[in-house]
Amino acid sequence: MESFIRLAISVGGSALAAYAVCRAADMLARFADRRHPETPLWGLLRRGRTPLYVVVLAALLRWTYPVAARGQQPLQEHVDTVGHILLLSLIGGGAWLTVRTAAALVESSYARYAGRSRDAARVRRVRTQVSLIMRVVTVAVGVVAAAAALVTFPSFRTLGTSLLASAGIIGIVAGVAAQSTLSNLFAGFQIAFGDMVRIGDTVVVDGEWGVVEEVTLTFLTVRTWDERRVTLPVSYFTSRPFENWSRGGAEMTGSVFLHCDHSTPVALARAHLKEFLSKCDTWDGRAWDLSVTDTSPTGITVRAIVTAKDPDDLWSTRCAVREELVGWLAREHPGALPKVVTAPAADLLELREGEEAGVSGR
Known about the structure:
This protein is α+β, with helices and mostly antiparallel strands.
């Protein structure tokens, strides 16, 4: 009975003390957040309440449990096992807390930079770099925590000596086996810090255009216009050509082609296009044009050029212009629409002879 009471006091007292410490830290973070609203750091640090509780509780139990187990045979038998479990919990909680703290610092720095900068392209570049840095930090902390946890096992500690002795051979084998993974890893750094492509950029890959949604250490996700997700290895963007419509500015110029008859009133169509664009919300007003770019025995090719502030507005503008011009020609000048000759050659010959006879009769 005395062993149970001591155990309950040890666990309950440690839990209450850990809760008090975490509660005090949370109140301090709230107070600092109210005093410094210009930075979201203190509000982001509150995300570390749970890992902080785990760390404090594990540390307190490692100190109080041996004291409670002193002189108590049932508890004394499990001191080493419980201590090892608490040590593993302390390592895991410390890694968790480190990742949360690093994420709060990085996100706070990014938020302050994004609030001061007016360059959208530079903000997207920093966002891509920040996300990659956080992934690297998470992986590094996880590897260190896993290594620290393995060292606590005597069998793995002995195994580590033999592994270090053959580290050269293992490194060569691992390098050859993971060549593709390593190339993607270094390509990810090259993309993030070489400013090749950023989160939020509009790109065209393999004939598909979309927006870069996620950049990781090994792959990149593009959200296409029809809400599909195309996942590509990051090495794709360092080894193959691709289009980045957002690089150097999001403004774009697009064209609309119409196939018309030779009798098309081009000047009237040009005037109507100008009038329509003045009422089009997605046209940015930078430039426009309408010209005949090609001719053939059966018709002409009319090209309309429009501009927009980003690829989405450009697509909408092109569709609106195409629909308006076709509708206007059908209503006002139906003879300007392309014609397809379907009459047999004999009928055409008779028609031509009749026209020639009419002319000679006059």
